[in-house]
Amino acid sequence: xxxxxxxxxxxxxxxxxxxxxxxxxxxxxxxxxxxxxxxxxxxxxxxxxxxxxxxxxxxxxxxxxxxxxxxxxxxxxxxxxxxxxxxxxxxxxxxxxxxxxxxxxxxxxxxxxxxxxxxxxxxxxxxxxxxxxxxxxxxxxxxxxxxxxxxxxxxxxxxxxxxxxxxxxxxxxxxxxxxxxxxxxxxxxxxxxxxxxxxxxxxxxxxxxxxxxxxxxxxxxxxxxxxxxxxxxxxxxxxxxxxxxxxxxxxxxxxxxxxxxxxxxxx
Length: 267
Ligand SMILES: Nc1ncnc2c1ncn2[C@@H]1O[C@H](COP(=O)(O)OP(=O)(O)OP(=O)(O)O)[C@@H](O)[C@H]1O
Ligand SMILES: [Mg+2]
Hints:
Radius of gyration: 18 Å
Bound molecules: adenosine-5'-triphosphate, magnesium ion
Strand order of the largest sheet: 3-4-2-5-1-6-7
CATH superfamily: P-loop containing nucleotide triphosphate hydrolases
Largest sheet: 7 strands, mixed
């Protein structure tokens, strides 16, 4: 089971693209995926052209059943969409005790139906982002090829550490990878940012994943509200995301299941 938050405190660095495309990559190799949008911009709904009746806020604060609040975007991918009401839900939840545990409390009982839970977040640190990090405990940070994106990545890594300090020993949120996105090696800025990323990796111990190349098929697919895999199956960004997905599966998938099986055998 993989739970993963896609986070960078900078806007427009392919967080949503990464969440949606990875979700589809996992789905196409037979994993059941729950994709949760926590950004009140509701971008996943927009770029996939989904028409949910109910949204995240309905699940979080209006006691709507989980099933009512997800829509199936393609085989193996269920999406809980977000809208402006997420902000209202955050205000309501901010007064509740143990508010950071809200996702843990509400999503844990539904996750067994899925192999992967991916959570897209807003560029700013919101309560739902904190809830998502406490629940998933693993963060993937896409980094665009510009300095502000790098700063956003550092902020995302620090936010995870701050949560760990806040919860003392009870929590271990890990940044599991820095994912260079929108990489065009012809641009001078790209090699500068990639060098800085290597340094950040050395400083933090977080590995840099293979790059996702810039590809005009990405915005075009979003414009016609399709997954990249349906719009252009041979797109180079898709090839890169598929590779990232299989790497993530190899390194993150069910170490706990393996441990449990080993423990069961030796018991
Ligand atoms: N590999 C790529 N090649 C070309 N364009 C890309 C690529 N990845 C993302 N984009 C484009 O970059 C823009 C920003 O992407 P996206 O919406 O995924 O970013 P975001 O980090 O989720 O933004 P926000 O912070 O507003 O939520 C979009 O127009 C998207 O189509
Ligand atoms: Mg987004």
